[in-house]
Amino acid sequence: MYIPYYHADVFTEVPFSGNGLSIFLPPVELPADRMLRITQEMKQFESIFVRPRPEGTLVDARVFTVEEELSFAGHPSIGAAAQLHALNRAGETEAGWIFIFPQKSLPIATRKTDYGYSCTMNQGEAEFGEPLPEAAGKPVLEALQIDPKDRDEKYPLQVVSTGLPYLLVPLKRNFTTANIGAEGLSEMLEAVGAKFIGLVDVDGRSMRTGDNLGKVEDIATGSLAGPVGAYLVRHGVAAPGEEIGLVQGVHLGRESRLYVTVSSDVIVRGGVVLLAEGRLLCP
């Protein structure tokens, strides 16, 4: 069986920048363990598997890291939507899609540009946990070996979600060198209602995240951008309706630009550059 495969750079307008993505269009539904193994073979932070329905705009989608399936993810969604626009709506300047994940549906709009595609996804309303008391956040900070003096005390540790719950940790110093993972972090995050950590430089409008063991850092994370934008609005750093520019991956040599607008819903926008295509020989 041949599976069409595509490669894109997401949250960028420049080739070989932003966050790389593997996109697969399997002709039949694949078992989860097969999709996980394919993702592990490609060694991208995430891969996405999409199957457009006959209706044309509805797309069944599954996204995997090298460790597990996620309920949804941002950069794979807009990257795959741009690729579907190129394949199925090439004669149109604009197109719309609804990506249907196992636990969430995600409306996405795509528009042709000189560099590729500009894509916008509606992540819905943000959900906020209560600001964490100091005692509850202390084990996480200690596990990440974050000096309390590096914490930006003007803003709280808080769990925010638009589909994936992140514990947001605002830092004012040593932002790019802080750890993003540690042994046992997953269990600590689960105890406060989060799945991943999100380090935030509020003044610099920058963010970082990765796997919970800290082995791999993500370069551009749409599912984190929405919560960070909502957090900035909630705490008066940005205004409702303002387009908030966020930066990620600069210190890794893969600058990514993510744009968030928060009103009643959280809207995340970014560029996509299509790079390559081929066939996966999948026995």
Name some characteristics of this structure.
isomerase activity; Diaminopimelate Epimerase, Chain A, domain 1; Phenazine_PhzF-like; 8-stranded mixed beta barrel; 5-stranded mixed sheet; PhzF family phenazine biosynthesis protein; 283 residues; 2 domains; alpha+beta
Structure at a glance:
With 283 residues, the chain is of the alpha+beta class. The protein is built from five helices and 16 strands. It has two domains: 2-124 and 270-281, Roll (Diaminopimelate Epimerase, Chain A, domain 1); 127-264, Roll (Diaminopimelate Epimerase, Chain A, domain 1).
Descriptive report:
- It contains five helices and 16 strands.
- The chain is 20% helix and 36% strand.
- The protein folds into two domains: 2-124 and 270-281, Diaminopimelate Epimerase, Chain A, domain 1 (Roll); 127-264, Diaminopimelate Epimerase, Chain A, domain 1, CATH 3.10.310.
- It is an alpha+beta fold and 283 residues long.
- The mean pLDDT is 95.
- The protein starts with a strand and ends with a strand.
- The chain has helices at 32-42, 74-88, 134-143, 185-191, 222-234; strands at residues 2-10, 19-24, 47-52, 58-64, 69-70, 94-100, 105-112, 117-122, 127-128, 158-161, 165-170, 196-201, 206-208, 243-248, 256-262, 266-281.
- The strands form two sheets. An eight-stranded mixed β-barrel has the order 1-2-3-4-6-7-8-16. Strands 9-10-11-12-13 form a five-stranded mixed β-sheet, with helices on one face.
- It comes from Dinghuibacter silviterrae.
- InterPro entries: Phenazine_PhzF-like.
- The active site is at residue 46.
